[in-house]
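User: I'll paste a sequence; please echo it back and then give the predicted structure.

Assistant: Echoing your sequence first, then the prediction.
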Amino acid sequence: MRIQFVFSKFGVALVTVMIFMFILLISGATFLRLATFEGILSKKDIQSSRAFYIAEAGVQRALAYLRVEGNQYSTEPINESFAGGSYSVTPADNPTRSIKTITATGSFKDRQKTIIVEVQLMPDFFKNTFTSPGNLELWGILASAYAHGTTWLSGVYDSMGWFQDMGFDVLVENMDSEKTTLRFPDMNNNSIVNEFSDFVLFFQNEVQQLDPSEVVWLQTDGTVDIWPDRDYAGKKIIFVEGSVPGAGDVNIWFDSGSWWESGQDVTIVSTGDVNYIQPLQNPSNNRLSVICWGNFSEGAIIYSAHRSVIGTQGVADLTYIIALINVTGAIFANDHVDIHSALVRADFYHDDTLNIGDIPPGLRPLCTNSYYLGDIISWQEGA
C-alpha cells in the first residue's frame, strides 16, 4: 500500500511564516538583551565619568585651600558631598622636594575614580622671617629686638644678658626639622640631597642660565672683597666658588655712599663664609641676598637697613653695636641663629614680595612661581 503526502501551497507558506516569526522573536530578544546590556554599560560609563569629574572637583577644592591657606594645608583631609556624589581628598608633603601630593577620590553611585596630583610649592623658609632647625639666641645688653611675621624653629628661642628682650608676632618651636631645613636638590643624581657638590652644581647651572653680562663667576679658594657699586649694576648672581667646602670666603663692604643704581637685585653665592659689613647703609629699593655653604655673619653700627634673603648651611651670626637696625627679607640658617646686640633696637620684617613669587636671582628653582599655588608638575588617574 502506498501513502502519499500532499503539501499544499498554503501549508508551505504557513511553515515559512512560522520560521520567520521564530527568527524575528530570537533576534528581537537578542537586540533587547544587547540594548539592556548597552544601557547598563552606558549608565556605568556615565557614573564613572561623573565620579571622575567629582574627583577633579576635589582636586580643585584642595588647590583652593592652598591659595587661601598657603602651604599650611598639609594634613587635614577633605570629605564633602558634591553633585550627587562625594569626594575625599588627602594631601601629603614631600619636604625634601617641596612637593605636595593631592590624592582625590570621587564617588558617584557605586563607581569611584581617583586622581593624583603633585604640586610644586614654595619652601617654608621663604615664608618666614626666621627659619632654623636649631635655636635662635639673643645675647644683649640694653638691647631690644622684634621678629615681625613668623619664626619657625626646630630648637627654641633663648636669651641672656642685661636688660634685653625679643618679641615675636608668631614663634613656633620644636618643629619637625624637615620643615625648617634648607636642602639643595640631588644635582649629581646619586640619590643624596644637599651635598656640597649639589650646592655647587645648582649654582653652576643657575649662572649658566643667565646672560654673561649678568654674572660674576669667580673660582678661587681665597677671600673675595666686594664693594657693591656701579661696577655691579645689572648683575644677578655673584658666585664665588671654592674647590672644597669652606673655601671661597666673601667680605661684603658697605658705607653710606657705596650702593649702586636703584632697583638692583643681586644674589651673592659663596662656598665658604660670608661676612656682611654694613655701617650707615640705606639701600632704598635694592635687594642684596646672600647664600653660603659656610657661616654668615652680619655686623653694623649706628644705623643699618637692608632688604635681603639670607641663607646659610651654618650659623647666622648677627652682631650690632649702638645701632638702629631694620632688616627686611627672610633669614634661614641650617645650624642656628645668634643675635649679639649692645645698645640696639633691631626690627626684622618678612619681605612680603616673596609671597607673590618675587624670589632673588638664582633661588627660583628652589620654589614656585607663586606663594600659594605652584606649578602642577604631574597629574595622573589612579587605580
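The longest helix spans residues 9-69. The chain has two helices and 18 strands.
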